[in-house]
Amino acid sequence: MAQLLDRLSRNPRSLAPILGVLVACGFEPLKLWPLALLALALLIELIARAPSARRAALIGWLFGLGLFTLGNNWIATAFTYQAAMPAWLGWFAVAGLAAFLAIYPALAALGAWLIGRRSYGALVMAMAGTWIITEWLRSWVFTGFAWNPLAAIALGGFDHAGLAGLAPWLGTYALSGLVVMLAGAWLIAVRRGLPDWRGAVLVLVPAVLFLSPLRSAPLDETGGKGLTITLVQPDIDQTVLNDPAMFEANFTKLATLSPPRQSGQRRLLLWPESGVPDYLREGYPDRYYLDNYGADPVLARRRLGKVAGAGGMLLSGTSDLEIGMVAGRERAVGARNSVTALDESGTIRGSYAKAHLVPGGEYLPLRALLTPLGLARLVPGDIDFWPGPGPRTLDLGPWGRAGVQVCYEIIFSGQVVDRANRPQFLFNPSNDGWFGAWGPPQHLAQARLRAIEEGLPVLRSTTTGISAVIDARGRVLDHLPQHHAGRIDTALPAPLAPTLFARLGNMLGLGWAAVLLALSAVASRRHGS
What is the arithmetic mean of pLDDT over 206-212? Predict the structure, then answer.
């Protein structure tokens, strides 16, 4: 095996991007976690062999280039749903984003080489520690793009969390560090040639942890105190979702899938992002209502209240406008990607505005520079969306306390809950119709991680799938597959008591990183003395 490692490592610059591609195969939808662990082990081997810090960083960057190109391939699909830019530009966007995101694995490799290069044990711990820190940095630098943390590889099947069940005590980023440690265990077993019980432990423990279902006891499903939910997936194709001529037909489809309960029992009705195209708030200049296919906000709210029905509360994706004076005329200067709560009378009972907006999707960075080049944002419209203030809990009275995260906001570990006012559940409306075959299952996996680490159920309603009811231990209790219209009627799952992560947030993961880096420094010093 050592000789095989020698052969494989002879051309690290060619091998590194291939290893990144293989690790990306560990994510949904392929879920080839043994391949991902082997590739991570080989990456550590390449870093150990690097003759300089510069070479170690280059290896990490090339690895990241392969990892993020395949893992984020779904972004290219988004360019096929708009006419402002050519579809082929999507692949340049994927490659450009991958080249930027690869900086983080480069920093992880550089830090690991500098701290732990004197021994394999020290290097594995250093790599785990630096990976935790760089994934955390990736979640917020330049607004962040935390898609596909290594921790997602650790998720089990829909009926169990698998190794990701440790997330309440680690957090997502430290769980990613654990994945690196387990890959490193395989490498150490091979490099040290341990044909005894020690080698068997190093090889078998990672495999057992990944293969074991680690099933937990069923949750008490009465946490909603009798509250039922109806979660709707209309399967409205992206090509007609924003077509004003189809607004009424789209509404009819959603309403047909949302029949009110005959008993008038209290119910939470959940519609996806982009569920309601009408402007529901009054006070905008009349032309905006007319441009929006003549929708009167009062009438729009009333008919939504009728759909909610007696005892019902509707939560749906909507858009709100920000009106300002431009050249002496009132006009929209911005918009909010919102979720609005309406009761049976059509009264607005609360709203949430998305805080983590998609660069290039909902707003165009450097607009003055990019617009003359013919570049535009992917979401239709001439004005940019504005961010909301961040996580908040909507107190819906007898319908519970709802935390809301719109679309890809759910991927940001430690940034989804108002910790001063903890909700009973998280609602994650989304439009995944842009993102082909790979994006939706990856998105669902990351929603499951939020449920596990926060100890809160997550309810996902999407336009085309995958919609799901996820319990507080990350198990998918029910789901609607992609490109299937339907609804889920069920009881609201119960929350758990606040987890350790829910109390400490990402300081928990950074604490684990500090421990690993300190142990690596000590081990490296002892090996060098």
Answer: 76
Instruction: Compute the average pLDDT of residues 379-384.
Output: 68
CA dihedral of 366, 372, 378, 384, whole degrees rounded to 10: 50
- 472-520 pLDDT, tens digit each: 999 999 999 999 999 999 999 999 999 999 999 999 999 999 999 999 9
302 pLDDT above the threshold of 90: yes
**Joined tokens for residue 124:** 């594995």
d(CA 404, CA 69): 30
Left if phi > 0, otherwise alpha if psi is -120 to 50, otherwise beta: which for 377? Answer: beta
What's the confidence (pLDDT) of residue 288? 82
Radius of gyration of the chain (CA): 24
Could you give the CA distance from residue 497 to residue 213 in angstroms, rounded to a whole number? 23
Q: Residue 155 carries which DSSP code?
A: B
Instruction: Name the residue with tokens 């300002």.
Output: 324
- The SS3 assignment for 337 reads strand
Helix (H, G, I), strand (E, B) or coil at 235: coil
H or E, element range at 476: strand 476-480
Paired tokens of 339:
């979720």
445, 468 in Cβ contact below 8 A? no
**Between helices 172-191 and 33-49, what is the axis angle to 10°?**
70
> CA 525 to CA 529: how far, in whole Å?
6
What one-character-per-residue DSSP string does 31-76 give? --HHHHHHHHHHHHHHHHH-SSHHHHHHHHHHHHHHHHHHHTTTHH
Decide the pairing of beta strands 267-270 and 312-326. Answer: parallel
Q: What is the DSSP string of 392-417?
A: -EEE-GGG-EEEE--GGGGGSTT-SS
Helix (H) or strand (E) holding 460: strand 458-462
H helix and E strand count, the chain: 19, 12
Measured distance CA(297)–CA(300) in Å, rounded: 5
What does each C-alpha distance from 296 to 277, 281, 314, 379 come to in angstroms?
Answer: 12, 9, 19, 24
SS3 206: helix
- At 396-407, the pLDDT tens digits run 999 999 999 999
> Over the range 86-102, which residues count as b (16 or more CB within 10 Å of their CB) and which as e?
eeeebeebbeebbeebb
Non-local CB neighbours of 171 within 8 Å, separated by 6+ positions: 413, 414, 453, 501, 505, 506, 508, 509, 512
